[in-house]
Amino acid sequence: MPQSHPISSAAWPTTRLTINGQKHELTVDPRTTLLDTLRDHLGLTGSKKGCDHGQCGACTVLVNGARMNACLSLVAMRHGDEIVTIEGLGESETLHPLQQAFWTHDGLQCGFCTPGQICSAVGMFREIEHGVPSAAMANVAATPSLDAVEVRERMSGNICRCSAYPNIVAAILDSRQGHAG
Amino acid sequence: MDSIIGQGIDRIDGRAKITGAAAYAADKRAPDMAHGAIVTATIARGRITSIESTTARNTLGVLMVMTHENAPRQAPFQARADDRHARPKPQLASDEVQHFGAPVALVVAETPEAARAAADSVTVVYEKSAGVFELGDASRDAYDPLKASEGESSDSHIGAVDAAFDAARTRIDAIYTTPYQCHAMMEPHASLASWQNGKLTVWSSLQLIESAHKSIADTLLLEPDHVEVISEYVGGGFGGKLPVHADAILAALAARELGRPVRIVLTRQQMFHVTTHRPASIQRVRLGADADGTLTSIAHQSLSQSARADEFSEPIVNATRSLYAAPNRLTSQRIATLDLPVPDSMRAPGEAIGLLALEQAMDELAVALDMDPIALRLRNEPEQDPEKRVPFSTRALVPCLTEGARRFGWDRRRKQPGTTRDGRWLVGMGMAAAIRGNFLRKASARVTLKSARRAVVEMDMTDIGTGSYTVLAQIAAEVLGLPVENIEVRLGHSGYPDTPGSGGSFGASSCGAALHDACTKLKARLAAGEGAQGLSAEGHVTPGEDYKKYSQFAYGAHFAEVGVDETTGEVRLRRMLGVFSAGRILNAKTARSQLIGGMIWGVGAALEEEAVVDPRFGAFITRDLASYHVPVHADVPDVDAILLDELDPHANVLGSKGVGELGICGAGAAIANAVYNACGARVRSYPITLDKVLPTLLDRME
Ligand code: FES
Ligand code: FES
């Protein structure tokens, strides 16, 4: 039987990172994921854990502007990074245009996948601006456009079991005007 | 003034959900909280002979290891009870293992990381017994569960089915199979339990607060008023959160032992075995018809899985008793006990899979008759409920069919399979009818005025994504004559008036009717001159005679267009439309969302979802979201739902019917029928994966 190795906090690494504009210095069990750090150590429970295995997208956050499954990253790997979670998206009283669009279009039911869907859509806009191709493109060397087919392809890492998909796509397409980058 | 009820206003809990502020069970924190990790059985049937947990106990940060050897005393499990979701759910109660993945130990530690690592180090030794894992193998021991659901019997027989079938000019006799399916809601089951002064509070993810409250209190042998159950936000349920599961009971037991709060969150992988699933089924449908399509006999017989650990019978054939006219009829439901995890209700239990068979059989009959499938259904429209022999409260199947056909462009469909093409795609259209029973359950509500212009609604109802918060606010606003913003709705707390909770699509109507009563009483007292501030009234509803005097269902029609890849057999949905009639709609926006959601569940059932049993181990091998496939964005093109105007005066005071399950009913069959129309492949074993379509395509090439 494999012996487990008790880990004492003396050996824990320190990670410095910025979350929603605030600097943090964290010394946590090195097995702790970025997702569990956000949720359990910083009280940012807007990022959800649907699978802990990179299969659902509920934990999607932005790392240096790119979307990432927070459950697939140890927090110790994010030293020096800038993280934005759903809590950091809107301004204190005003909603981010995507948040508003999800609400208006009823792009949510139970709401559990919603923070991940919204963060993922923010990251997707940036990917399209940067010309990142997708499997939905006939010619991957072309400049990607933002239409329903592209959105569906690029958002497929975010599962919604309530299946609000048509409304989510409508929300994303509708908010594209209000969002420049 | 325009009615507030029915308006498609934005969800009132929307802001909390889009900002991440909504706190689900696993988001709750308590001071000094410890974390539990469950160890599950790696055999399907047998006994635990020893548990080696020294390493776990010695792991830094571990607080306790609980097994059947030291678990506290709990109430015994009851095999049968009137309310199966309110029964005691004892955990780690004996050395017996009744299914793969059943909890066998709990490790509690200071951190989730420590708990999980320690749980991994627990070694359990078993004495294995042989089990039965395949439904076909168990069919010889199938038995009559006596009661299907909603008090209906498992069998019905009218006329002489066999003789009528033998004499029929056109006959369909086919076997359809549906696989194990999983709720796979996005929020894993989670509980946080905390004791204070001998009283227990459990924050959990639940659909039914009242029965969960009873189940938890009874299991722990506690007085009900010593237990509080809270479920403010639920990240999807679909039936999977009707029962109380191990997370709630084990958290409560461990928190009491340790004297500090304990949180347990099931892992995604554990959900597939620790919680429930939809049973697999084998269904035989026989239809006999005259040359003009008039049905002379309908027979629908089902066999589905039940579990050694607990009995469950999915009411697969119930809707068949009311959908079409025919003088000779037979339905029967049988179950067989397997050594698999426990099945339970999943979205539209019965109709969801019963219609996958019946509505595909109807399509087969239309082909055999060389008749349009819509015309076949119109031909067999009954004047009253064909088995209960009472009038329908309302029944708008025909308008759903005709309106849907018009909007979808059904007239462009070619009857001959394989004759419509778009590049490499063979394109086809299919349709199916939707029917779902409508129920009213006993419910209570309390409304209190905070001021002359502001009211608070309290009920132990839950909102599992269905829009309960919003439609209840609309009902209170309308009756009290206040703006919706001035209504605060508090749900999901066992201290609030009892409701049937979220399940069986009865939630909104039952709770809405009770709240309507409460608000009406409050208004009467105001009118009688009582002061506003603090004035409170309770309202109630109980199902009346109208549920016996009328046959109550919601109806709809599904239309699907699919493409079948000519060389690979891959099926892609291209567009889908559902037209529904479900009484008065309480919120046009959230109702449409629910119906679309249900239709997409139908897409999953038709094309993707299948929990596969490994017969060597009696385990589901599809135990994550990478192997248990649910529809994702790319699988869902243009899907829309239209609601016809209706009011059902016999349903309840609001005239509403449930919509949460209607959308899935028949949806998968419409897709199966579209696959046939596209390429001629008649796939009777769901899901319709490419391996099942390919043989037909190969034949076509020859
Ligand atoms: S929780 Fe990270 S992808 Fe599912
Ligand atoms: S809103 Fe429930 S999973 Fe997406």
What does this 3D model show about the protein?
- The complex is a heterodimer of chains A (181) and B (702).
- By secondary structure, chain A is of the alpha+beta class.
- Chain A has 2 domains: 9-88, Beta-grasp domain (Ubiquitin-like (UB roll)); 97-178, DNA polymerase, domain 1.
- Chain A contains 5 helices and 5 strands; from the N terminus they run E-E-H-E-E-E-H-H-H-H.
- Chain A has helices at residues 34-41, 97-104, 114-129, 148-154, 165-175; strands at 14-19, 22-27, 60-63, 66-69, 82-84.
- Chain A has a 5-stranded mixed beta sheet, with helices on one face.
- In chain A, a hairpin with a 2-residue loop joins strand 3 (60-63) and strand 4 (66-69).
- In chain A, helix 2 (97-104) packs across helix 5.
- The longest helix of chain A is centred in the last third of the chain and has 16 residues, at 114-129.
- The model of chain A is unreliable at 1-6 (pLDDT under 50).
- With 702 residues, chain B is of the alpha+beta class.
- Chain B has 3 domains: 14-21 and 442-542, Aldehyde Oxidoreductase, domain 4 (2-Layer Sandwich), CATH 3.30.365; 31-129 and 184-274, Aldehyde Oxidoreductase, domain 4; 149-181 and 278-438 and 549-701, 2-Layer Sandwich (Aldehyde Oxidoreductase, domain 4).
- Chain B is built from 18 helices and 26 strands.
- In chain B, helix 13 runs parallel beside helix 14 and helix 16 crosses helix 17 (667-679).
- The longest helix of chain B has 21 residues, at 507-527.
- The structure holds FE2/S2 (inorganic) cluster (2 copies).
